[in-house]
Amino acid sequence: MNTWLMILIACAAAYALKLSGFFVPASVLERPRIARTADLMTVGLLAALVATQAFTTGAQLVVDARLPALVLAGALLALRVPFIIVVIAAAAAAAGLRALGWLG
What we know:
This protein has helices at 3-20, 26-29, 32-55, 66-78, 83-100, and strands at residues 56-57, 60-61. With 104 residues, the chain is mostly helical. The chain has two domains: 24-55; 63-104. The longest helix has 24 residues, at 32-55. It starts with a helix and ends with a helix.
């Protein structure tokens, strides 16, 4: 199969999956168990994305300047610092550590 055809099929499948969500009755989505599961899945997927981006490079596990920046971001979020400040502080911490040659 052609690569572009495969991409178009994958796009159509993803769109169909998203579109199917509109056909689920509201009574099903309002059930406590379904709502709780959806909330927990969102948190789990976000945590997996953060872990993957923070601790991997290619196919290798690494500990570099991203780890202290992530810890700093978590601490600032726990202190309820505005999100834009958290992002700037974490980026500055990672950049500073890399500039100093620590945890390259």
